[in-house]
Amino acid sequence: MPCNPAQPYNDLPLLPPRRELETARVLKQCIRSRTVLAELEQSGNFLPNRTLLINVMPLLEARASSEIENIVTTTDRLFRSSLLEQAPDVATKEALSYRQALHEGFQSLSHRPLCTATAEQVCSVIKSKEMLVRKLPGTALANEATGAVLYTPPAGERLLRDKLANWEQFLNLPTELDPLVVLAVAHYQFEAIHPFMDGNGRTGRVLNLLHLVQSGLLSVPILYHSRGIIRRKSEYYRKLCDVTFEDAWEPWILYMLEVVEESARWTSRKIRDIRELREQTKTLLQTRRPKLYSAELLEVLFQQPYCRIADLVAAGLVKRQAAASHLKQLVEVGVLAEEKVGREKLFIHQAYLKLLLHEDEEN
């Protein structure tokens, strides 16, 4: 039955869609996207410590995914707040919650597959309160400028849970469909079900990354996926609507596959840049401060673009007094810059921070 924007779309069709999904164009794009994803997975293996990526990339993803929902913060604020364990504003707090949701969702894959409980867990962490499947009617998506209703998702907890159970099966049962096609179709369905009162978009994008891990395309969720979406944001919403009102699956699937390719290509380049900066920093320290240099110190410097005396102590490198001396020497050779934040001293890895702050200037 056609969708009436003003009425709950209780007849949202179950998955899989009753049409050909893997068209010739889709299959060609699948090959391109999977090739670049494999290169991303391989590029992460070249770093001595992949923990670096798990700390840094999810923060970039968190900022962009939140910005899609018009929750705007800066990368600099995110890194400072994550280190100092304080959020200066609501937007930064919500973006940090997104990173935590991604981490917890990733950990949950070790004991259960993607499911409704995963979605509830992820959304609850993002919103910092318990978020369960909607029980109350009245949810509708409207044009912010005009107020016109664009789409009304299904209503009724039982119906929503039934549709989510079908979504779970589509994600987890054996299929001949490519995992990236499954991702595109499942993401549409989750957004169309719109199971929560708030946080659906960000939850859906976390689930995309978890699906890439669950399906074996990535070992850790390091893809900067939301960057590609935010650069083509209007297209994202338009093509979602086109599936609902025109059954236009191919353009939507192609869009999602292209976003994966673009995001994976960008993330691989960023990892390459981090690796090069790491080697330059290593060479500088071995040349200018050979007694100071250690592989462990280098790891601390690249965990985040900011560090404190406490970080060197926590890493077991040195006692507090020696840690202060180490950081002072790093300032002297130009690796770090010192800044006072309240009663705390922050040491900024300026070259690393600059590299991360310019994440949106590359194509």
Task: Reconstruct the topology from this structure.
Blueprint: H1 24-45, H2 51-68, H3 75-84, H4 90-108, H5 116-127, E1 141-142, E2 149-151, H6 157-172, H7 179-193, H8 200-214, H9 225-231, H10 233-246, H11 249-288, H12 295-303, E3 306-307, H13 309-314, H14 320-332, E4 337-341, E5 344-348, H15 350-357
Antiparallel strand pairs: 1-2, 3-5, 4-5
Helix pairs in contact: 1-11, 2-4, 2-9, 3-4, 4-5, 4-8, 5-8, 6-7, 7-8, 7-11, 9-10, 9-11, 10-11, 11-15
Describe the structure.
It is a single chain. The protein is mainly α and 363 residues long. The chain has two domains: 24-269, Fido-like domain (Fic-like fold), CATH 1.10.3290.10; 289-357, Arc Repressor Mutant, subunit A (Orthogonal Bundle). Helix content is 62%, strand content 5%. It is built from 15 helices and five strands. It has helices at 24-45, 51-68, 75-84, 90-108, 116-127, 157-172, 179-193, 200-214, 225-231, 233-246, 249-288, 295-303, 309-314, 320-332, 350-357; strands at residues 141-142, 149-151, 306-307, 337-341, 344-348. The strands form two sheets. Strands 3-5-4 form a three-stranded antiparallel sheet, sandwiched between helices. Strand 4 and strand 5 form a beta hairpin. Helix 1 (24-45) packs parallel to helix 11 (249-288) and helix 6 (157-172) packs antiparallel against helix 7 (179-193). The longest helix has 40 residues, at 249-288. It is elongated.
